[in-house]
Each structure stands twice: as C-alpha cells, then as structure tokens.
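Researcher: Re-running this chain for the archive, since the previous output was lost when a drive failed. Same request as before.
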Amino acid sequence: MTRELSATSVGHPGPDGLIWIPGQTGSSGFVSGRLSSRLDTFITFGCAGGGSIEVAVHLDNHPDRDPAPFTVDCPETDPALVTVPLGTGLQGGFGTWVTASTPSTRWGATVVQPA
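Model: Regenerated structure tokens:
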C-alpha cells in the first residue's frame, strides 16, 4: 500500500510559516514577495510516489546566496523530507522551481522564518 503525501507529511508551518504547499503532483513551483531580513529562513520539501524531484531556488535580491539545485529521491511509500537552511539577512522575493522526474511524483513544501 502506498502512503499518500499529505498535508501532515510536510506539516503545517504554524505562525512561523511564510509558505505552505501541502501537496502537488508533477513539476511546478511557487514564489513569494517578502522575506524578513531579521529572521532565519528554512525551506522544507517532502516527496513520495517514486522518482525524484529537482529543486532550484532563486533569491531575487541575493542571487549570490542561491542554494545549489538539489535532488530529493522520492520513495514509493513513506515520504522523504529535506530541510535547507537559507540563513539570515535575506529580504525581498524568491522563486522556487520543482522538476519532478515523473508526472505522478507527489511533493509538498514549507518556507518558515522562526521568530
């Protein structure tokens, strides 16, 4: 039995959350128009359903701090979770692109800035 990637897989980020994508299938992405320069920023991805996702992040005002694109292997059953710290001092918008290796690969994400 395949466990579905659900909202609880990546978890609701609560009051520290900037973005919550509870579940997508296939390739997609998201953008945000604001980051607080005084807070740490963390981005978490979860995926399941086989295949993999490749993640690319672009920080509009800080392209020198863009993390290198990374790949997450997505098990058929229990979701894989990966958290990437982006650090403090970031401001402005950012975009994230997720390229799934198959159209049926499921993924979710959160971006948090803990107070």
